Amino acid sequence: MSVVVRVAEITEETPSIRTLRLVRLDGNSFTPGVYKAGAHVDVTGPTGIVRQYSLCSPPGDPSSLLIAVKREPESRGGSVALHQLTVGDHLKLSKPRNLLQLAEDGDRHVLVAGGIGITPLLSMAYELYSWGAEFELHYFARSRDEAAFVDLLENRVEFPDRVHWHFGVAPADLPAVLQGLGAALTSDGHVYTCGPAPFMAQVTTALAPVVGEEHVHVEHFVPVEVDTRGDEPFTVELDTGESFEVPADRSILSVLEENGIEVFKSCEEGICGSCVSGVLQGTPDHRDNCLSAADKAAGKEMALCVSRALTDRLVIELY
């Protein structure tokens, strides 16, 4: 399912980051509760390229949706095209999906953003504030000039005292700073992080010993590099009874599509989560960057575009 929206407002946050405020074409509000904090959407731009962007507006405000786009120097046209949009242009959005979600049972929440990783965490901060929850938002960036939403977070949100800035932290000093964020946390606390992969890995290393690995929630937008040498064929069976052989060099997704089975998909790199389906029998070999550590350990879901099987047979349920 997708919807066409209009760009109602553009804000140049930094020389390389702009925010796009999106509204419905008919002028009405979006359906209340259309997305939960931490959700992202597939955005189809003018070039037809599809990219994933987090929704960073308050989830309780259905009047518009907000995304932030960083222009990547090695972009294949996706982010560059969105930086050429003007007010009034149209975009196509998918239905919002949540791979990063708030834990309602946490006694304290620490949000740790690296650079453009602030986007999903901003919507989560809005939601936590609306709950009256205990939380902190820590924003790491190279400099104040390279950080998005500075004016918003300092002057236009109701929780500026919950925002902590970390500009220009040297790589050698980062582990100690991150460990310091765990001082007020217990095993009942939760940590949420988004940013460059090495940054998120350091957040996990510093804070997982305090809250437990399953209480560290990570948002990835880059594929996992996997050594496919030694892959073996296996059988995948649908809950309808249809069965297919998956060769060593093919994905479950491609085999299903070849046989006329429709599967919702987008990135095909194990990032967006659109092809995640249920696992009824067998053990998946997770190779995605969308499911959480807890989801992977449970073995009840898998990303069909990249993940394989550790057993000779998988029985799956398409969502």
Give the SSE layout.
Layout: E1 2-12, E2 17-24, E3 40-44, E4 50-54, E5 65-70, H1 78-82, E6 90-94, E7 109-114, H2 118-131, E8 135-141, H3 150-156, E9 163-167, H4 174-180, E10 190-194, H5 197-211, E11 216-219, E12 234-238, E13 243-246, H6 252-258, E14 276-281, E15 284-285, H7 293-298, E16 301-303, E17 308-309, E18 313-317
Parallel strand pairs: 7-8, 7-10, 8-9, 10-11, 12-18
Antiparallel strand pairs: 1-2, 1-6, 2-5, 3-4, 3-6, 12-13, 14-16, 14-18, 15-17
| CATH fold-level assignment of the largest domain | Rossmann fold
Shape: globular
Radius of gyration: 20 Å
How many structural domains? 3
Alpha-beta content class? alpha/beta
Mean pLDDT: 92
**CATH level-1 class of the largest domain:** Alpha Beta
- Percentage of residues in helical conformation: 10-25%
What's the architecture of the largest domain, going by CATH? 3-Layer(aba) Sandwich
Total helices: the number is: 7
The low-pLDDT segments are: none
CATH superfamily caption of the largest domain: Nucleotide-binding domain of ferredoxin-NADP reductase (FNR) module
Strand order of the largest sheet: 4-3-6-1-2-5
User: Would you report the number of β strands?
Assistant: 18
* N- to C-terminal distance: 13 Å
For the report, how would you describe the main beta sheet? 6 strands, antiparallel
Strand % is 25-35%
Succession of helices and strands = EEEEEHEEHEHEHEHEEEHEEHEEE
